[in-house]
TrEMBL record:
Organism encoding this protein: Vidua macroura
Annotated Gene Ontology cellular component terms: centralspindlin complex; cleavage furrow; midbody; nucleus; spindle midzone
Protein name: RGAP1 protein
Keyword Coiled coil: yes
Entry keyword annotation includes Coiled coil: yes
GO MF annotations, alphabetized: GTPase activator activity
Example of a GO biological process term: mitotic spindle midzone assembly
Gene (UniProt): Racgap1_2
Keywords of the record: Coiled coil
UniProt feature coiled coil, ranges: 38-97
Amino acid sequence: EQGLQLLELGGSVEEDYIRIARCFEATRQRCCRLEQDGRRAREQLARVEAERAALEVKLKHARNQVEVEMKKRHRAEAELEKQERKLQLVLELLMREPWGNEALSREQCSVLSALAGRRLGAALAPNRRSSAVDESCQSLLSHSDISYDRTEDDV
């Protein structure tokens, strides 16, 4: 636009050429700045993309690790329940058999009956676990709350 305006002014030809040259120089400088800005933006984009890719790999590994740990936990819980059932059966057998009461001292019988009562109470309360670790305060991120989005794993 400025170039057209300069041509329409009708001044001396040399002055018009100088003005046009200045306009071209200003436009060239603006293009150089824009090119540098574009180069910096492309470099920043490449860095961010590389960081995103690294984070996606870490996320995939973390998801796999959580899945492995959840499987281990389920197996351990199943084994614990199996062992608790076995122990409960043994305790019930010892408490019901007449020879069991005769062979055991009164103290042993009271300990077994208390233990059997505690195990029965634990079996009746499904969310209570009988273990050395108090798990009454469950994790804020229990395994049932975790959802897996496998669609991004293919990226």
